[in-house]
Design goal:
It contains 3 helices and 10 strands. The protein is an alpha+beta fold. The strands form 2 sheets. It has an 8-stranded mixed β-sheet, with no helix packed on it. It has a two-stranded antiparallel sheet with strand order 1-2. The relative contact order is 0.17. The structure holds a DNA duplex.
Amino acid sequence: MFGSSTFQETNNIISHQTINPNFSFHDPLINMNQDHGHNNYQDFDTSFLDQLVYGDQEYSNSNNSYNASLYSQNNPFMQQEISTSTYSGNSSSASSFDATPTNIHMNENSSMEVEKEKKGEKHVIAFRTKTQREILDDGYKWRKYGKKKVKSNTNLRNYYKCSSGDCKVKKKVERDGNDSSYLITTYEGIHNHESPFVIYCNEMPTVSFLNVSTSSW
DNA sequence: CGGTTTTGACCAGCGC
DNA sequence: GCGCTGGTCAAAACCG
């Protein structure tokens, strides 16, 4: 499924994954090193949507490599590592940086996830990110609708809804109670629209093309 | 002025 | 039924 994948599968669950184009994740650490906030989106696995999955990311400045691990809450001992991916790039230049992991492929069809949503199955993914930011820029526009102190965590949990039209996607953001250098982000549901960032990107070549063709006329 | 955030109140689910 | 907990509402405040 992953072709020339660098995934080291330690659990069969990983083989079930597909990529949901409705979900993109932006690496805030890469973003902090550059001013080009929206150049490094990548599509991330969301096929464990009837499970809760934690992703753990670490970024190394020394070799510009990036590691991502997914953990399954189904494991009774929590956070058994089920996959690891690594990719590298040159972060010194935003234009040459390749933030796309070679082991994850785009899947244009998210109909399976949509069907699950229709059947009332919750589409949930959560991941941990080591970041000082209070919220990750994932390309979507969110409206905060609540903040709560929860028993399991000394840190506050923030509640957000997608602010795009009738989109029902929600997300929760809280600092990890065990290690507050990590941010835990949980998404629920599937966006029924493109990310504003994707729309912005798709428009760029069109504008450029029109400018060229009109000027050469 | 319209969209977003804040924050206390309210609600639903669960265990006892 | 009651209390606890997490999630949501909604009015007021805030902000660009």
